[in-house]
Model the fold of this input.
Amino acid sequence: MKNREIAAIFDSLADILEIKGEDGFRVNAYRRSARIVGDLPTDVADMLAEGTLTKVPGIGKGTAGSIEEYLTRGKITRYEEERKTIPKGLVELLSIPGLGPKTIGLLWKELGVKSLAGLKRALRGGKILDLPRMGAKKVENIEAGVRAYESRSGRLTLGAILPTAESTIEELAAATGVDVVLAGSVRRYRETIGDIDVLATSTKAAPVIEAFTALECVEEILASGSTKASVRVSGALQIDLRIVPPASAGAALMYFTGSKAHNVRLRGIALDKGLKLNEYGLFQGERRVAGRSEEAVFKRLGLPFIAPELREDRGEVEAALEDDLPDLVEEKHIRGDFHVHSNWSDGRSTIEEVARAAKARGYAYVSINDHTRSLGIAHGLSVARLEQQMEEIDAVNTKIKGITVLKGTEVDILSDGRLDLPDDMLERLDVVVASIHSGFGQPREKITGRMIAAVENPHVDIIGHPTGRLLGTRPAYDVDLERVMRAAAESGTALEINAYHERLDLNDMNARLATDLGVTIAIGTDAHIVDQLWMMGLGVHTARRGWLRRKDILNTFTLKALRKRLGSV
Done:
């Protein structure tokens, strides 16, 4: 589908207009179009052909016309024209965490910054501090954003590339009839990915390579050899294929899954046993003693199977040697989702649609957690509207059997530490998620105090996206997370792994620290349309990377146990 490509263009057009300082209404109109098109579960090309595109709320004739132009001509004229009105280098600056279009526009107009190099010169010269609303803390955040951008340049979020990765192996397997699997950092479920590694098992490599380079998604063939090939697909994403014989399949999968540090540890164990381990197998002299499966290689090394998510050399080898690996949580253990938005605020799906989609996933419960009144841009709910929503939830629960819709909210933690709804309202809800959506630049002590105040509120069940980061675009706010975790452990408040692909917040390491301190973790997709409920898997794999077990995750509780834990009726 071209939906995401078109959405990205609308977003980029909004960025350009905002950099230029144009009318906020036009900027927001393009942002809204980007969100709507990006969230559509159906191909816009099919909808255009069927005449249903303009029936989608928020897509008017102008937006539909731009979509049609892109589908027929491969470009949107308005976007191409606007791109020429700003220096090319300014677009790159939009990828720097903590640097938004308005600030970029200010730097361009006042200091002549036109590129990353120009921004770094301005930072070194200290001239940025002379600009309005540009204090030392903001400059420090921009410098941190530049460092983060340069260290992560070229990497995409796991959730953004996973559908492409999975469809590639499915199509290649269907076309060739051979076993095809993902390897590399995708298989380890790292939060950002540089490229996709694919491994195919076959004694005849040529037909597999021919089928791979002929896949519909391929835009450019970068290399094509006797046992490997590399291609570039949409979004400049590179996919590398390697073909190995069955006798080496397991050893090759271990090798190409990595990480490098983990592989080094395994090779060291092999050497200690008088063996040699490489991508072709485990050898004693010239004789291959294992290699057909990963399990066989691990067993021959005297180790239990180590889950791919753990292979980062963070103690997993030592734990394996002591037979002390954790029994990791699995997606099949998940009984519900604690963070879903509906069309009552900034979501696109009705409560009934959410309920039916959650039931189809086999969930016992799903919580509706729309924004509260202070978040006007998200059409946040007042007390009166939340009470009306609760009535609708009652009606949906009466109508749909086999799933329980929980009454919840994502209540704002305000800049002064208060919550955006009164306690007597929060007390009536099943699941209260409290999150920060403003005041990101406040001092460390202030933000930490706000979060601890929310943690200690007896009506708050979960702290949402606890660091506030957006992968690749916004750094975490300055918070003493360990203090927050210790307060949460004492109060029994859960911390969230927000599974939305641009967040994955808490990350794996912070989730592990939280559970080590006695904190329960709740996974929420932050879904704004039912097609985003699949991101629960991203949250589960983040939890697995953090060594979390079934008992560490609130989502694994039965409804009865959950109600007892939350104190709801």
Notes: The chain has a mean pLDDT of 92. The radius of gyration is 25 Å.
